[in-house]
């Protein structure tokens, strides 16, 4: 399957749209064809512990939350 884009604006009852970005991901997104349609799945890259946040790498940014905090700022995060 080649490159595909996904419309994340339609609510489908799944939790995939709640997964945050991280440069230290514990899963990746993979596209499989299911009944002739592309379906996105989160595939674990390692064991994920109970209570641990599931995160994947959104890919090339820029994303504001990846900015390093400037000296004296505490709210920004690097992940
Ligand atoms: C697919 S949604 C992820 C779920 C979202 N956090 C929520 O509660 O609905 C993508 C949005 O989540 C936020 N987000 C994703 N990863 C983040 C991170 N590492 N730090 C802060 N915000 C993040 C951004 O606002 C982004 O536009």
UniProtKB/TrEMBL annotation:
GO terms for biological process: regulation of DNA damage response, signal transduction by p53 class mediator; regulation of transcription by RNA polymerase II. It comes from the Eukaryota. It holds the Pfam family SET. InterPro entries: KMT5A, SET_dom, SET_dom_sf. This is SET domain-containing protein. Residues 1-59 form the SET domain. GO terms for molecular function: histone H4K20 methyltransferase activity. Residues 1-23 are annotated as: Disordered. It comes from Dreissena polymorpha. Gene3D superfamilies: SET domain. GO terms for cellular component: nucleus; polytene chromosome.
């Amino acid at each position: 399957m080649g490159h595909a884009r996904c419309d994340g604006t339609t609510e489908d009852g799944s939790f995939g749209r709640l997964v945050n970005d991280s440069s230290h991901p514990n899963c990746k997104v993979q596209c499989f064809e299911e009944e002739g349609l592309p379906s996105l799945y989160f595939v674990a890259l390692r064991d994920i512990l109970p209570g641990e946040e599931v995160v994947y790498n959104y890919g090339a940014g820029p994303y504001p939350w990846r900015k390093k905090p400037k000296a004296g700022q505490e709210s920004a995060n690097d992940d």
